Every structure is written in structure tokens, then in C-alpha cells.
Amino acid sequence: MRSYKKKQISQAEVITAVGRFHDDYKIRRVTAALDEIEDYTSDIWLVDHDLHVPGDLDLTQERAYLLVVLGDLVVGGMYGDSDHPESFLLVTGSMRARDVVTAGWLEVHGDLSTDRLIGDYNDCGAYIGGDVHARLFYGEHHHFTIGGALSANAVIGRPRLEIATPPAVIDIDDLRMLDHFDRDLLRVFDDHDDNGNAITYVDGFRDFRELKRRVYAGLPFRAAETRDN
Questions:
Q1: Could you give the 3-state DSSP secondary structure of residue 110?
Q2: 13-33: per-residue pLDDT in tens?
Q3: What phi and psi, each to the nearest 5 degrees, are found at residue 84?
Q4: Which residues have C-beta within 8 Å of that of residue 162, sequence separation ≥ 6?
């Protein structure tokens, strides 16, 4: 892994690398930042081959403004990024991680495979050129573009999603939410109808921060689940 601030990468190499981004905004944004990067607490990192991270990879903790992987990226633990401070990931191959929570700019040109794919807010977005394989996908308000197919056991809510074939979804007020999340993660109300029959309502998530905390800690959303970490 080479560092821009340590003079291990030339400006020309960075410009060539970011030219691989799918859209012009990210190219312009990162190129403009080159004149200011010395004042940032973060750095630009370039990997000229596949990258395997045995544990977690959090771009904010690693102080990575931009990470470019010219190959495949495999993360043994959780992958996370940020919209404040803004961060960019570019993977020219495929990516695999235990879980993904993305708030920043995530771009994978191949396939993305993960257990739980979680979007976080809407300032940035994710682009996956190939297929996405996930057990659970909750896009929240984050924008996702998927060039291939989405294969997920459960798609929660109605994601901001550009894809050729939209998936079937489980609305956040659907009782099937209880099949995927503990009651303490949800707003659940027990009541009775006019005939005295017990009924249950679900009204979305109680605290999105707790949802993210469980992902970061590698904990299941339902206590009955087992996780293969």
C-alpha cells in the first residue's frame, strides 16, 4: 500500500487512478482535493494489486480520504466509510466483506459479496458494477446503483436504488420485520382489534445507531441468529 503524503505516489498516478471512477463528480472532487490534501488529517492510499485485510477496515479510522485497490478487496471483518469526513473507495475488481456499512463514496467495478449491506444517510452513494450478494440489504436513505443483479434474502424498506430489475422488498412497517430484527430494534406496538383479538404493529426502527452498532460489533440483528465470523 503506497501513500501520497509519504511521496510514494505521484500526482499523475493519483489522477490516472481516479480516472477509473464511474462518474465525473468523484473524479473532479478528488482531483481538486490534491491541492489541499496536505492540510487534511487523511491520506490517499493506492494498492497496485489485490488487498486482503484480515480484520475490519474503516476508512475514517485509517485516515483514508481515498483508497484505490487495483484488484480485488477482501475484508475479513466489517467495512465502513464516512460522509463526514468524506471518504472514497475505488475497487477495480470485486469486493467481499463480512458486513458493509457505507456512508461515503463506495465504488466496486466487479461484484460485491457481504452478509449485511447497510446504507447510511444520503450525502454520498454506492456504485456496484457487477452483482450484489447479501443476506440482508437495508439501503436506508443512501443511494445505490447496481449494474448487475441483486441477490438478497431480505431487502428492507424501499431503497434509493438504480437497478435493471427492482427487488421485492419488506416495508419497515411489515410484520415480517420481526423475522429479521429483535423487537428492541423496532417500534413494535401490541394492541387489540374491535373484537378483542391481539394484534401487533411494526412502525420501523427504534434507533438506527443501534442497528449500526450491532453491525460494527459483528452482532446479529436477531438473538436467534448465529453469525459465522
A1: coil
A2: 999 999 999 999 999 999 999
A3: -150, 95
A4: 143, 144, 145, 146
